[in-house]
């Protein structure tokens, strides 16, 4: 994972990625009057820095100390932001992160890294508990339904930020989606993910207590006309 992440950060320009992501989630937060946000999947800091740039009070959590160190230095590099970082596993979030938040974001197809249903439920319940009574969780995921149901065939290539990196499914079944990432310098990496079905995630969110879950299709990553590449779930606590 580390080599992959370094490569991604080295080759993908954040400004380009900002442009390709658009301001959908930032707008959702602003429309709700959100002030305090917890980024639970900080990674190298892309979304946390974006939130700080937009003026949100932001706490940046991640299970990996190595990622947080990178995020911290990226924050300093992009706009001189001092990230408030906390190492915390989603499954025990309340133990390590204090306070309550208007919003929690879990972006960049991060939730796909949990491979057991028990862990997914536990993580969502922890997110729920850390939100204020009218708080909102914004969580995105790749559109695995299209992949599992064969709408793309198994050879569909996803391009990120133009052509710098492409991802192709290497193996897909209901329990595992393995992708091959090829960078424009021809280096290749494989990543294993859990293929989350859209309605399954929506159901889990409701089962842990979220009152309302809206799911949006996001067309920005590749240029498929009819099927979104990503879904963004907006789950309201109250
Ligand atoms: N949002 C960032 C982005 O899009 O660039 C980073 C996303 S990165 C794909 C996913 C992050 O989730 C990794 O940094 C990983 O350490 C973190 N992560 C995965 N499972 C986790 C868990 N159970 N608890 C906390 N963090 C976790």
Structure commentary:
The chain has helices spanning 2-11, 14-21, 24-31, 46-53, 65-77, 93-96, 117-129, 144-148, 198-207, and strands at residues 36-39, 57-62, 84-87, 101-106, 131-142, 158-160, 165-173, 176-183, 188-193, 212-218, 230-236. 36% of the residues are buried. The model has no long low-confidence stretch (mean pLDDT 91). A 7-stranded mixed β-sheet has the order 3-2-1-4-5-11-10, sandwiched between helices. Strands 6-7-8-9 form a 4-stranded antiparallel β-sheet. With 238 residues, it is of the alpha/beta class. The structure holds S-adenosylmethionine. Residues 41, 43-44, 46-47, 62-64, 67, 89-91, 107-108, 110, 113 line the site of S-adenosylmethionine.
Q: What's the N-to-C terminus distance?
A: 37 Å
Whole-number radius of gyration? 17 Å
Question: With helices defined by DSSP (H or I, 4 residues minimum), what is the helix count?
Answer: 9
Q: Structural class of the helices, strands and pairings?
A: alpha/beta
Quantity of strands, as a count: 11
**Please, what is the average pLDDT?**
91
Q: How is the largest sheet built, in terms of strand order?
A: 3-2-1-4-5-11-10
**Proportion of strand residues:** 25-35%
Low-confidence stretches: none
Taken in chain order, the helices and strands follow as HHHEHEHEHEHEHEEEEHEE
Shape: globular
The set of bound ligands, ions and cofactors reads: S-adenosylmethionine
The proportion of residues forming helix, as a percent range, comes to 25-40%
């Amino acid at each position: 994972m580390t080599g992959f992440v370094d490569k991604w950060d080295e080759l993908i320009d954040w400004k380009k990625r900002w442009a390709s992501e658009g301001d959908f989630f930032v707008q959702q937060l602003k429309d709700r009057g959100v002030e305090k946000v917890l980024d639970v999947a900080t990674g190298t800091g892309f979304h946390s820095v974006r939130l700080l740039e937009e003026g949100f009070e932001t706490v940046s959590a991640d299970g990996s100390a190595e990622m947080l160190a990178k995020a911290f230095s990226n924050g300093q590099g992009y706009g001189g932001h001092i990230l408030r970082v906390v190492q915390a596993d989603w499954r025990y979030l309340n133990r390590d992160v204090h306070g309550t938040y208007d919003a929690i974001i879990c972006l960049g197809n991060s939730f796909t890294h949990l491979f057991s249903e028990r862990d997914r439920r536990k993580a969502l319940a922890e997110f729920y508990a850390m939100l204020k009574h009218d708080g909102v969780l914004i969580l995105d995921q790749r559109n695995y339904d299209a992949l599992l149901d064969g709408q793309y065939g198994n050879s569909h290539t996803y391009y990120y930020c133009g052509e710098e990196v492409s991802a192709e499914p290497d193996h897909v079944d209901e329990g595992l989606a393995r992708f091959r990432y090829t960078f424009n310098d021809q280096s290749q990496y494989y990543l294993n993910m859990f293929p989350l079905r859209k309605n399954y995630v929506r159901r889990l969110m409701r089962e842990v207590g979220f009152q309302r879950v809206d799911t949006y299709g996001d067309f920005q990553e590749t240029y498929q006309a009819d099927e979104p590449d990503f879904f963004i779930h907006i789950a309201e606590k109250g």
